[in-house]
């Protein structure tokens, strides 16, 4: 299959998956009506933004899309060179892309932080693993730590998710990942003292 054909297939599937009726979570009002109305019938859909926000459709996983997004983050971490500069650039790029595409997805789905948006989980995994010298066992520990902090949302994670638009989508996972990164560092330090 050519690259162009694969692209055509991808962009023909996203609108089918991206329909707001496919999100099982109840709608949540996202403001005071100041956002522009969403046109679903016949209007051009924000395919690129939805493709980025859902990490190529990973967010449409029928079971635990956030966990699927975190798994995609593990795969990206494994693929990226392990230099701090490359990983930092990837984190910043994901934050910027996620803030933009998350805002578009919120307007499209007419709800805050739609469940299909998982680019925040991908970024969160990279932050959790950032500059932590781990192999696959440590990466799995990072996965569980990030999921834990993302779910329990300790202060100020719970406050950051209330920020407007895609910034709120990304900021809460960014902070949850900082907590997970610190917890992973603590586990590594304890593990090194116990072993040595």
Major sheet, described briefly? none
What value does the Rg take, in angstroms?
18 Å
Nearest-integer average pLDDT = 83
- Cα(first) to Cα(last) distance is 53 Å
Order of helices and strands: HHHHHHHH
Shape: globular
Helix content: 55-70%
Q: Which consecutive residue ranges, at least 5 long each, have pLDDT under 50?
A: 9-44
Your description of this structure?
- By secondary structure, the protein is an all-alpha fold.
- It has one domain (3-50, 64-195).
- It has helices at 3-17, 47-53, 65-79, 84-109, 119-129, 136-152, 157-160, 165-195.
- Helix 3 (65-79) crosses helix 5 (119-129), helix 4 packs antiparallel against helix 8 (165-195) and helix 5 (119-129) crosses helix 6 (136-152).
- The chain is globular.
- Mean pLDDT is 83; it is low at 9-44.
